[in-house]
Design brief:
Blueprint lengths: L1 E9 L2 E7 L10 H8 L10 E5 L6 E6 L5 E2 L3 H13 L6 E6 L2 E8 L2 E5 L4 E11 L2 E9 L3 E6 L8 H9 L10 E9 L2 E8 L4 E3 L3 H13 L7 E4 L5 E9 L2 E10 L1 E9 L7
Parallel strand pairs: 2-3, 4-6, 11-12, 13-15
Antiparallel strand pairs: 1-2, 1-18, 3-4, 4-5, 6-7, 7-8, 8-17, 9-10, 10-11, 12-13, 13-14, 15-16, 16-17
Length: 274
Amino acid sequence: MEIPFWKMHGAGNDFVLVDDRDGQFPAADAKWIAAVAARRTGVGCEGVILIQPSGSADFRMRFFNPDGAEADMCGNGARCVARLAHEIGVAGAEMTIETAAGALRARVRGERVKLWMTTPRDWRMNRRLTVNGRDFVYHYVNSGVPHVVIEVEDLASADVAGLGRAIRRHEDFRPAGTNVNFIHVTGAGALRIRTYERGVEAETLACGTGMVAAGLIAGRLGRTRPPVAVTCASGDVLTVDYRLREDGAEDVTLEGPAEHVFRGVLPYPPSRSQ
């Protein structure tokens, strides 16, 4: 079997996308999905995304991390799949997307996509954490997937890999673990961010749900006000907007580019050499 795919990225956050409306994609083969995502021996990506039929939305988005494990959703991935779905006729320019985290809305305008996120939940503000003998103040919110946010003075010198890895697997966030974001506020409506992503198990150039978590938490701390221009490690700037209320936030949006890289075909089952 040959499986056509598209390679896309959102602010450097890259994905392999497949139109799986016929249900033929081997979604249960986590080892093979991980091989596809591998940088040196596969296509290379930070997530594999399927477009599948939905009974409640224009389509269902399934998202797999580079280790082959399925995750609830991905913000930049959802923006990429929204653009693709529109271009191949699965949905109009305004659409709804079914995800394991809940229903999303998206609007496509050329290469720019605006995504209405799920309602943030599980807030934890001004908590303390001891990691490797050091104490940190952190904040936490599930913006579709779980995120820790730590404000730092010098983002360039932040130990994203080492500290991010330790916090990601800390007992306070078991069993699912967490993504870890380091932020530096640069103005009333701007911040910079670096993210350690679970599943990727490394720093990534961008993380949509992490950018949303950072924008929301910076707002709760009174450090910024919406809309917030969030600059990620790739240098791209995405816009996080929201309306706050006593019990959380509503109308949370993430807007930025979703770009094509190339198209290809995946053979399955793979050859023995793979």
